[in-house]
Amino acid sequence: MTRADTRPHARPTFHPASAPDFVPAPRLRELQLARLRAIIQHAFVHVELFRQRMESRQLAPEVRSLADIANLPFTTKVDLRDTYPFGLFATPLREVVRVHASSGTTGKPIVVAYTRQDLDIWTSVMVRSLAACGLHEGDIIQNAYGYGLFTGGLGAHYGAEGIGATVIPISGGNTDRQLMVLKDFGVTAICSTPTYFLHLIDRAVQLGLDLKSLPLRVGVFGAEPWTDSMRRHIESATGIQAFDIYGLSEIIGPGVAVECPEHDGLHIFEDHFYPEVIDPETGEALPEGQEGELVLTTLSKLAMPLVRYRTRDITTLLPGPCPCGRTLRRMRRIGRRSDDMLIIRGVNVYPSQIEAVLLEVEGTLPHYQILITREHGLDQLEIQVEVTSQVFSDRVGALEALSDRLVDTIQRVIGIHSKVTLVEPRTIQRSEGKAKRVIDKRGQS
Ligand code: DLL
Q1: 427 FRET partner, CA 20 to 30 A, in 65, 89, 120, 416?
Q2: Sheet hosting strand 378-387, strand order edge to edge
């Protein structure tokens, strides 16, 4: 194949499925209000936890204006945990055609559900996302998000098929094979976590593969925070245009918000997800332009509607229109969270999950440290844990067996391979205040 065959020329980003992105704002507000009314009724009738919360505040499930949303109760990750696995479902299980899951704060994941119609909505927001990134029929999309319970793989997959592109469902990992496919199949776009793509860049350099010589022209990167300097690095090393895509399982998966070619904030698909930014301490809604925690209400999803879900992601709603013409409001890219959730190689990890494993095993002491570094673009996780002097003076074989067991159990619980280093009692620095359990050396560039 020649380069001319495989590299579709830049076309305007308008795709018929993107029409809702450009609806005049007053019309969009009407639609949001109509959908909000319906979803509040639906949740009130079908979700016990929501009904109880409303009743305990003497709130009727009636919404007069969009401003009324500020009176509704929040939903949190703890609610998902407490109702595990299916307690927040608002439709009978036979209408649920898919579930996904993501890490919870403890050993159990949180479970999310989709009806057939919910999946169609998800595909539609992913089609609009990919269209905003300039993708269209004829593109060849290598989907390196993980397939499985994680929403990244299947979310991007259906979006890519929906836009009429050719999808390569390669999933994550197996870097050399990724590079082979990237080159041999004439791939024009890649979907992956930004750090995994950095890793691909590094490996390509090692193998002497010049990514700039390939037809690859777009990267759709998300599932973890990244920065503008990472974007510059990616773009100058590969010649592609890098787009930020945001989403979370609880709300739908990827496709909650995406950048347009202006790269000045992410447009939120407001016709399906109503955004607010609140002060994470007081819960008060903040005006546009002020930084706080993103709170999202699903306006159309039936299997698991969420009202005022506290994402813990910190952002700002950007004032003013975007030159691209989309009327959807924009949020600044997510740089950090207000809780302790870590994202390692795109996987959500809570230190409490690791702690639970360490404390269960005999011979360990409750002093540990989690170190995260980045080598060749790939996140590395090391856990240092103190063991009793008795274990430490045991045979070397016993120490090795203990660390192997910890590596296995941690991998099973969080889904990531780690290095476990067992150290002598009192090796790990004690803190005078809060213990510093996590040392994240990945930096911000
Ligand atoms: O990460 C969904 C996704 C898949 C988004 C693929 C984009 C691409 P969860 O595993 O539930 O879902 O993790 C959601 O990841 O609350 C953020 O903290 C973080 N996150 C997701 N996208 C971005 C992004 C998927 N573009 C959590 N920038 C969210 C920064 C992001 N953080």
Answers
A1: 416
A2: 419-423, 378-387, 364-375, 438-440
Ligand 1 pocket check for 21: Cβ under 6 Å = no
CATH number for 362: 3.30.300.30
Res 105: pLDDT: 67
272 burial (CB, 10 Å; 0-12 / 13-18 / 19+) is buried
Q: 308 with 73: CB under 8 angstroms?
A: yes
Q: Are residues 300 and 357 in the same domain?
A: no
pLDDT along the chain (445 residues), means of 10: 42 80 98 98 98 97 96 96 96 98 80 98 98 97 95 97 98 94 98 90 94 98 88 94 98 98 98 97 96 97 98 96 97 90 91 85 87 91 92 84 94 93 88 76 71
164 CA to centre of ligand 1 in angstroms:
24
Span from the CA of 231 to the centroid of ligand 1 (angstroms):
17
- In short, whether 139's Cβ falls inside 6 Å of ligand 1 is no
Amino acid at 19: A
CATH value at residue 275: 3.40.50.12780
Find all residues with CB under 8 Å of 362, minimum gap 6, and list them: none
Instruction: Round to whole Å and give the CA distance between 251 and 130.
Output: 18
Do 189 and 267 belong together in one domain? yes
**Is 252 in the same domain as 197?**
yes
Which residues on adjacent β-strands are paired with residue 379?
374
What single-letter amino acid sits at 417?
Answer: H
Phi, psi of 277 (to 5 degrees): -120, 130
**What DSSP element (H or E) covers 116?**
helix 116-132
State how many domains the chain has: 2
The widest CA-to-CA distance across the chain, in whole angstroms, is: 73
Please indicate, yes or no, if residue 64 is contained in any of the structural domains.
Answer: no
Give me the helix-helix angle, 116-132 and 151-162, nearest 10°: 70
| 412 burial via Cβ count (<10 Å: 0-12, 13-18, 19+) | exposed
The finding on whether 313 has its CB within 6 A of some atom of ligand 1 is: yes
User: 246 CA distance to ligand 1 centroid (A)?
Assistant: 5
pTM: 0.88
DSSP single-letter state for residue 295: E
Nearest CA to ligand 1 atom 12: 248
pLDDT at position 227, please?
84
